[in-house]
Specification:
This protein is mainly alpha-helical. The protein contains 13 helices and 3 strands. The structure holds a DNA duplex.
DNA sequence: AACATTCACAACCGCATTTAC
DNA sequence: CGTAAATGCGGTTGTGAATGT
């Protein structure tokens, strides 16, 4: 809480600074040139120093965003293809609105680009198909305020629950320690590559759950550990890597 | 032609997390 | 270990172009 207040204060200071002397709005070609030239020559120390050393009246944040989303040389300038769109849809199903995680699996694409594409096109398309009676599953609406998002994080979020739910109803079985793929053609499960083992649990305070009489497997599990956001991130990242490595078939869960 | 609406995308904002000291 | 600064992320807003009336 205290930290959060500080972050807000820090941002407010930056904002105050911005209104005094920082430029805002669209970047001019000259600014782009300065930023690009500075970074290609000297690299990025800290973003605030980049802004200063490149002689830009921009916040470090703004410089970072411009570089990441527009100036980076390895960005793709091609329109998003049908294949990429399908990939976005699949990954969004798996990861939710974790645009940076999705972008990490799409070379040349940025989180902002994917987020915009999702919001302006895919979301609409899916909605239309829903309205016309298509059996397309609507993407989960994530009208989440920052506060709600934080609440999700605090409770472990629904993400793990969703993954478990998917795993439970799909051909992938996620056990503590063992994983099998049930081949649709044969009923004999075959061993899979190492699946990241989920050693966290969904409750903030497992002891409290036990005290409350919630005798969940997680609460009772000797593997129970506090489940931080970084645990969550690692788990989800590894889980998706795993799914993508197995087969296209699994991506449709 | 003039205005309104829609669309796509760039950029901003607030907050959480990570890093440096 | 605590604090401040830096960074990263996702939601939202702003803006210019395209399209419709």
């Amino acid at each position: 809480m205290e930290r959060r207040k500080r972050a807000v204060v820090s941002d407010q200071l930056e904002t105050k600074e911005d209104t005094k002397m920082m430029r805002k709005g669209l970047w001019s070609p000259d600014e782009d040139e300065r930023l690009y030239s500075h970074i290609t020559h000297y690299g990025v120390g800290t973003w605030s120093s980049v802004a200063e050393l490149a002689g830009l009246k921009r916040s470090g944040k703004s410089c970072r965003l411009r570089w990441m989303n527009y100036l980076q040389p390895d960005l793709s300038r091609e329109p998003i293809s049908k294949q990429e769109e399908d990939l976005i849809v699949s990954l969004q199903k798996l990861l939710g609105n974790r645009w940076s995680a999705i972008a990490a699996r799409m070379p040349g694409r940025t989180d902002n680009e994917i987020k915009n594409y999702w919001n302006s096109r895919i979301k609409k398309k899916l909605q239309q198909r829903m309205n016309t009676g298509g059996n397309y599953q609507s993407p989960p609406e994530v009208h989440q305020t920052a506060g709600e998002g934080a609440a999700d994080m605090n409770t472990g979020g629904n993400l793990q629950a969703d993954l478990y739910q998917q795993a439970a109803t799909s051909k992938v079985r996620v056990d503590h320690g063992s994983t099998t793929l049930h081949n649709s053609s044969a009923d004999h499960p075959r061993p899979l590559p190492q699946l990241p083992v989920f050693t966290g649990q969904l409750l903030l305070d497992p002891d409290a759950a036990v005290r409350n009489g919630e005798q969940t497997a997680a609460a009772q599990s000797s593997l129970c550990v506090p489940f931080s956001k970084s645990h969550e991130r690692n788990f989800v990242e590894e889980y998706v890597e795993f799914l993508m490595s197995v087969s296209d078939e699994l991506l449709e869960i």
